[in-house]
Amino acid sequence: MIERAGEVYILAHSAKLGERPFHAWAPIPPGAVLVTDAAVDAQQVTLFEAAGIRVQVV
């Protein structure tokens, strides 16, 4: 579905970002938008943005 989508949005709680054993179902493609909460670690935001993933904090 990600390959066919015009835009990709991922909604994830900040506590799950960069942690294990939370398994990824598919790689997040560059240009996707990650929507997460305000408790997100700034370093995690930097890593996603460096990979070409936009981060929207709500």
Describe, in plain words, how this protein is organized in 3D.
By secondary structure, the chain is α/β, with parallel strands linked by helices. It has one domain. The chain contains one helix and three strands, in the order ββαβ. The protein has one helix at 42-50; strands spanning 9-11, 33-36, 54-57. A three-stranded parallel sheet has the order 1-2-3, with helices on one face. α1 (42-50) links the parallel β2 and β3 (54-57). The mean pLDDT is 90.
Q: Please state how the strands of the largest beta sheet are arranged side by side.
A: 1-2-3
Low-confidence stretches: none
Helix and strand content put the structural class at alpha/beta
Strand content: 15-25%
H/E element string? EEHE
The overall average pLDDT, rounded, is 90
How many β-strands, per DSSP? 3
Number of structurally distinct domains: 1
Largest sheet: 3 strands, parallel
The gyration radius over C-alpha positions equals: 11 Å
DSSP summary: helix tally: 1
**End-to-end CA span:** 25 Å
Q: What is the molecular shape?
A: globular
Give the helix level as a range of percent.
Answer: 10-25%
Topology:
Elements: E1 9-11, E2 33-36, H1 42-50, E3 54-57
Parallel strand pairs: 1-2, 2-3
Any key phrases for this structure?
1 helix; alpha/beta; 58 residues; single chain
Summed up, what is this model?
Helix content is 16%, strand content 19%. It has 58 residues and is of the alpha/beta class.
